[in-house]
Each structure stands twice: as structure tokens, then as C-alpha cells.
Specification:
elongated, homotetramer
Chain lengths: 201, 201, 201, 201
């Protein structure tokens, strides 16, 4: 039951966060110029929406794949999971801020906004890594008992964290580079990512 | 468990999206003219709300009927389901934009807004079709093993997609035609639609 | 599984609707007069929030008590349940509109807004009655097979509908009478209401 | 099933409330001064977000730990749980009001806003205590049959309530003292709090 409620609560948070993202699609509406012009100006926000949607989607898929393998959870994991969700819940904010400044902010503010997006992603990745690490060292994952298997699982996940660190630095060179890196990362994980090898369930 | 969480997450997204729709009912409030006048002007938004509510409702019922038949899911379905949800989550945006421009936008913008609504529906239909198709070709649906049964299931669903394509074209003739078509489609599916024949569970 | 997803989806809608209600608590904030004055002016909205919170709570408890007794559901119930949720989802709108006009609208508009609240409640009650009725006539409720037991179950529930009809008429005499009636009804159902007699589970 | 739906509904409310909190992170955006300045001015709101996030998180963990131990629930607990959720749902409002007045309100209004936050927490704590108390006196918790064990469980929880009462009084001395106390309380409960002693599940 414990695990079930952790999953139910997390699913709820993921679901609300991913749906709130869509508020980024909203435009000013009648009286603010031709609709097609408004939509054109709004393309960065749409791109940011797409990237964040699939990023949250990937986190959810990995969250689900990870907890699927845990026969049990403890109180520590409940709070590490909260830490992960703290950053998940901040993604709609990071997305709308980045989108707003890419659309109409000065370049230096757009850089900062794009970097903040990266920092939220780094926080989220670290939160996930802590959950994964605690599950591994507590021996909660039956199929990952050797030190090597544990290391592999963490390394595969940690790579994403490094990309987010790099992107949030490159944002200060050009925020659009960061946006592209965020998009490529999400796409990469959609196409192929398994935090721990397993048969399809 | 895998399937359970896919359903829980999807139910959460459907629930949030369908509840956010109701924000379309909001009016400007005191100081913006007599309430009855405000409500009268707001009727297109109310109609759009009703249509989108039952459209999301129908998708949810079909989603549920489809996954009810799947003994298992795989990673591909998780991501195809995300693609479907990407469009579900965009429905409140498409609804409010269409409503705003039907209420007070110039005719050409109302046409575009009504067409966008149709495109979101087309995307949603295609997302659903991809989930259905993958389930069928992977042999996940025990009762649909013949090529003919598979074809029938997809054809029945694909018909709706064509209506949405047609409506989003006709929107440029007159956006109200599109609105009526969206409403008729939702009503039709409410009254009778079963993606795959099955006994009541 | 069918019933489980109907309940999960409904719980999600109830949860989002009841949480959105709390947006009614929001005040204008710094720069709009002393906080204590703002809060004082906002008391009708707080009262409306309390009433709607417990009204949705009561619906949820009854929804749960009803479906708890159903060994199965059919497609008709899925759609009747959607009809019920259509009105549940409109409650935050009806609440904020009534609160706004009780706070600062002209008396005639406050009357209309309070009546609209009642109409939404009538719609919600009728939706619930239709679900209950379909469950009864389909023989889904094992303990309610006699015509008399069925009648009693419906009568007990229908009484609330009549109160809402009366309140939405009396709103045109004085909207505050309607508000009090809505509050008394919620309180009454909180203190004692069981749509069908049953042992505590 | 009864208990399952209480948990599902509560999880939904917790999930929506905790995600709505993140709306506090939003800033005014382009055209309202340099982003870094806006973010700096917004630090009280970020602190309030963090505190409320973990406060709701702690309530959720305790809610889950408590109901995990209940073999059954009754109608009274359903409504006491609603009372608890009434205050949970008010936390985003209390958070944003406190944050807004700490950021730019006069000192006296900031004091009131910080006190209101404390009152919501007191209400929430009392709601939780009532649920716990009813579960204890009804004998729903197998491992807590002695009067002493029951008293210990309630005392451990009641301590938090007293801190909230104290903080909402001290808010009138200086609202930042209250903010710090709210943060320390959340941190304390994150690091160590078990409403009833139990083996990890």
C-alpha cells in the first residue's frame, strides 16, 4: 500500500504539472493583433511546451520503471521522492519564464531564464539520482546487486544531468543553444532510455 | 502495475484537462455590464465548453475501453500514450481560443481559431490511432487477431479523424459550421461508439 | 477494472474541482487597501468557498458510497457519470460568480448569480439521480431489489434537488436567502445522509 | 474499497494543492525590470513555496502512514478527512498572501498575513488530530490499544499545533520570525516524525 500511494501521489503531481504546462500555449486573444501573428510570435513558447511536456513524460516513464522494480519503499524514499517532485512542480514555472524571455526579453535575461530552466532540470535529475541511489544501496532492487550493475544504472542516468549542466552554462553564450540542447535531451530519452535493464512488463 | 500506472497517470491528465475546461465558463464579473448580457455574449464559450467536455469524456471512455482489453503494455505504448495526452492537454487552450474569437474576433481569425481546434482533434485522433494500432499489431488484444477485425477497429476510429479534417477545412468557409461539426461528432460518439466490440464489463 | 477507472477519473475531477475552489480565497493583495479590510469585504467569497467545499465533499462521499455497492458498471453509467461531472466541474465557476456579485454586484445581478449556483446544483443532483436510477433499474445494487427500497433511495436523494430548486427561486427575492439555504443543505448532508442504507465498510 | 477511494481522493487533493503552490514562483516577466532583480525581490515567495511544499509533503507522508494502519474507515472519518483537506487546500492561498505581503506590503499587513498562514496550519493540524483521535478511540489502529500509546501518538502530533499557534502570535512581533518558525517546523518533521511507531512497510 505504501508504494501504491507514493505512486498515486506522484502520478497526480506529474499529471497536474504536465497539464499546467499547456497554459503556456495561451495567447493574448482578440484585440492584440492578427491571430496568425500572435501565434507566430508565440512559437518559442510552443517549442518550450513541447520540450517540457516530453521531459516530464520521460521522467514519469522512468519513475514508473524504477518503482515498478521496488518490492518496498521506506520513509527516506518518500522524502527523496518529494525532493524530486519539488523540481518537477517547478518545471511549468521554468518553462513559462524561459518562453517569455525568449519571446520578448533582452538577450541577457533570456540567457538567465534559459539557465534557470537548466538548473531546475539539474535539480530534478539529482532528485531522481538520489531516489535511485537510495533504492540501490538499500538493496531494494533485486536485479541490481553487483556494484557494477549499480554503477551502470547510475552512470546512464547521470549523463543527462551533465548535459543539463552544460546547457545551463551555454545559455549565457546563446539561450537558443540551451533550448536546442533541452529538446535534444528530451528526444534522446524518448527514443531510448532505460534506467535499469529489464524485460518489458 | 505498469498498466495501472499508465491508466492512473492518464486519468489524472484527463481529469485535470476536463476541469480546466470549466475556466472557459468564467465571465468578466461586476463592472462589465449586466450579468445577463455578459452571459448572453458568453454563449459560444459555453457551447465550446460543452463540446470539449464531452469530447474529452469520449476519449476517456475509449481510452479506458481500449486499455481494459490489454493484458500488458510496453514502453512504446507509454510514449504513444504521451503523444495522445499531448493533444488532450492542448484541448483547453484550443477551446478557449476558439471561444474567444467566436465571441469577439474578426471572422478570419475565428476561422483560424476554429481550424486550430480541429487540428488539435486530428492530432488527438492520430495519437489514439497509433496507440490502438500498436496494440493491435503487437497482438496485445486477444479478441482481435484476424486482419479483418483489426481493420474494422481502426476504420471505425479513423472515421472521426476524417470528420475533424473536414471541419478544420470548413472552418475557413464559416467557423460556426466547424463548431457544429465538432458538437455533432462528440454527440455521435457519446450516443454510440465502441472502438472494439466487447461484452459490457 | 472498469469500475476502478471510473472511480479514479471521478476522484481526480472531484479533487481538482475542490482544490480550484480555493482560488476563491485569493484577495487583490498589496496596494488595494488594508489587508484586514480586504479580508472583511471578502467574507461572502469565503462563505461561498466553505459551502461549495462541503457540497463537493458530500457529493464525493455519496458517489463513493454508491459505487461501492455496484459490482459492475456499464457504458451508460460511464456517460451518466460524465453528465454528473459536467456540473461538478462547473461548481467553482458558479461559486466565484455568486461570490463576486454578492460582494460588489448590483442586487439584481447577485440574485441571478445565486440562482445560477442553484441551477448548477440542480443539474448536479439530477445527474446523480440518473446514475442512481440507472444502477437501480439495471439491478446493479444487490440490496435494493424491491420497488419500495428503490423508491426510498431515490426519494431521499431527490429531496435535496427540491431544496436547490426552491433556493434558486428564492434567490430573486434575496440572494442571501439562497446562500443560507445552500449552506444549510450542505450542512444537513454532512451531518446525516445515506443514499442507500448500508453497514459501515 | 472505501479506504482506497479516501486515499485516492486525498492524494489527488494533495497533488493539486502542492502543484498549485508552484504558481508562487511566477514573476511579472519581461518589461518589469531586470530578471535578476525580479528574482531577488521574489526570494520571500520562493522561501514560502519551499516551506509550504515540504509542509504539504509532510502532511501527505503522515496521512499515508496513518491510513496505512487503518484496516477500515467509517463515514465519520470521511468527513473529518474533508475537514483536514479544507485546510490543505487553503495552503496555496495562505502561502501566496504571506509571500505577497512579505515582499511588498506594510509591516502590519505582513504580520497579519503571516498569522493567517499559521491559523491555516493550526486548522490543518487540528483536522489531522481529529482524524487520528477518531481512529484511536474507534479502535481502528490495532497496535495502539493502550491509553498510554494513544496519548503518546496524539501528544507527538499536538506539539506541532502548539508551534503553529506560537508562530501566529509571534507574527505580530515580526512576520519573519513566523516564517522562520514555519520553515523550522517543516524541516523538523521532514527529518524525524512518526505519528505512530511502526516498522517500515
Amino acid at each position: 500500500v505504501t508504494k501504491g500511494r507514493l505512486e498515486a501521489f506522484s502520478d497526480g503531481v506529474f499529471a497536474v504539472a504536465i497539464t499546467l504546462l499547456a497554459l503556456n500555449l495561451a495567447i493574448a486573444g482578440p484585440g492584440h493583433g492578427a491571430l496568425v501573428v500572435q501565434l507566430g510570435r508565440h512559437l518559442p513558447a510552443d517549442a518550450a511546451y513541447l520540450i517540457s511536456f516530453f521531459t516530464i513524460g520521460v521522467i514519469w516513464v522512468n519513475h514508473h520503471a524504477l518503482f515498478d522494480q521496488l518490492p518496498q519503499v521506506d520513509r527516506v524514499i518518500l522524502f527523496l521522492n518529494l525532493l524530486l517532485l519539488l523540481f518537477v512542480v517547478a518545471i511549468p514555472f521554468a518553462t513559462s519564464t524561459m518562453a517569455a524571455y525568449l519571446e520578448s526579453g533582452p538577450q541577457s535575461d533570456a540567457a538567465l531564464a534559459a539557465a534557470i530552466y537548466g538548473w531546475v532540470m539539474v535539480g530534478m535529475s539529482l532528485g531522481f539520482s538520489l531516489v535511485l541511489r537510495h533504492a540501490l544501496v538499500s538493496g531494494f532492487i533485486p536485479g541490481a546487486t553487483t556494484a557494477r550493475a549499480r554503477w551502470a544504472a547510475q552512470a546512464r542516468f547521470g549523463a543527462g544531468t551533465l548535459v543539463y549542466v552544460a546547457a545551463s552554462v551555454l545559455a549565457f553564450v546563446n539561450p537558443w543553444i540551451a533550448l536546442v540542447l533541452y529538446g535534444v535531451t528530451a528526444l534522446y530519452y524518448v527514443l531510448r532510455q532505460t534506467p535499469l535493464r529489464r524485460a518489458p512488463s
